[in-house]
Amino acid sequence: SQTIHQWPATLVQPVGSPLSLECTVEGTSNPNLYWYRQAAGRGLQLLFYSIGIDQISSEVPQNLSASRPQDRQFILSSKKLLLSDSGFYLCAWSGGWGATDTQYFGPGTRLTVL
Amino acid sequence: DAKTTQPPSMDCAEGRAANLPCNHSTISGNEYVYWYRQIHSQGPQYIIHGLKNNETNEMASLIITEDRKSSTLILPHATLRDTAVYYCIVRVGMDSSYKLIFGSGTRLLVRP
């Protein structure tokens, strides 16, 4: 069966510091991968999605970037964090199997920028 | 912007059916309706999805109106562990770059 991992689970970072969040998927190959952010009490906002290695699309202009160095690894980064980057970051994967494709979410990383 | 509207909160008694409504009046003919739920501080959990026919799985049933402008998620016998935020989502796009646009969801409280 497929599993998705995210780390770290929680992170507290000062403003202006760099960021690296990691997401890995097991049990599948060539998945679509997604990064979402959830502000406190809000719904999820899609940040990036990737349909393959080095194929990444950005949904929202911001100081974040994403990379996919391996087929089942998705990394979210920032060179300098802002206070507004605080939130719950969720990675998701899907099989990309057409009209009924389903996204499955990881456990998330809670980021607090101070 | 989300293409769905949901009541912000609902409650039901444990053991009773929970019926969560969703309006999606601008849905297009080939757009699917998805339901997820999110228990506090966890990642969203997929529940069910459908296009025009009613769907049922081990977790829930999805009833979509004939005009497809609204749907209802039914949890037949709610338990305390079903307390969560439930998101109704219209999938936008048909190819591999499709998007799930989340709204604010319905906070369901199951009472003992």
How would you summarize what this structure contains?
The complex is a heterodimer of chains A (114) and B (112). By secondary structure, chain A is an all-beta fold.
How would you explain this protein's 3D organization?
The complex is a heterodimer of chains A (114) and B (112). Chain A is mainly β and 114 residues long. Helices cover 0% and strands 57% of the residues of chain A. Chain A is built from no helices and 11 strands. In chain A, the strands form 2 sheets. In chain A, strands 2, 4, 5, 6, 9, 10 and 11 form a 7-stranded mixed sheet that branches. In chain A, strands 1-3-8-7 form a 4-stranded antiparallel sheet, with no helix packed on it. Chain A is globular, with a radius of gyration of 14 Å. Chain A starts with a strand and ends with a strand. The mean pLDDT of chain A is 92. By secondary structure, chain B is mostly beta strands. Chain B is globular and about 40 Å long. Chain B has strands spanning 9-13, 18-23, 33-38, 45-50, 55-56, 61-64, 70-75, 84-92, 99-100, 106-111. The A-B interface holds A 32, 36, 42-46, 49, 51, 57, 59, 88, 90, 92, 96, 98-108, 110 and B 2, 30, 32, 34, 36, 41-46, 49, 87, 94, 96-105.
Largest sheet of chain A: 7 strands, mixed
Number of helices of chain A: 0
What integer value in Å does the Rg of chain A equal? 14 Å
Which two chains form the greatest contact, residue counts included? Answer: A-B, 27 and 24 residues
SSE string of chain B? EEEEEEEEEE
For the secondary structure, the number of strands of chain A is 11
Rg value of chain B: 13 Å
Per the principal axes of the C-alpha atoms, what is the gross shape of chain A? globular
Strand content bin of chain A: over 45%
The helical percent of chain A reads under 10%
Number of contiguous helices of chain B: 0
Note the main sheet of chain B.
Answer: 6 strands, mixed
Low-confidence stretches of chain B: none
Helix/strand-derived category of chain A reads mainly beta
DSSP summary, beta strand count of chain B: 10
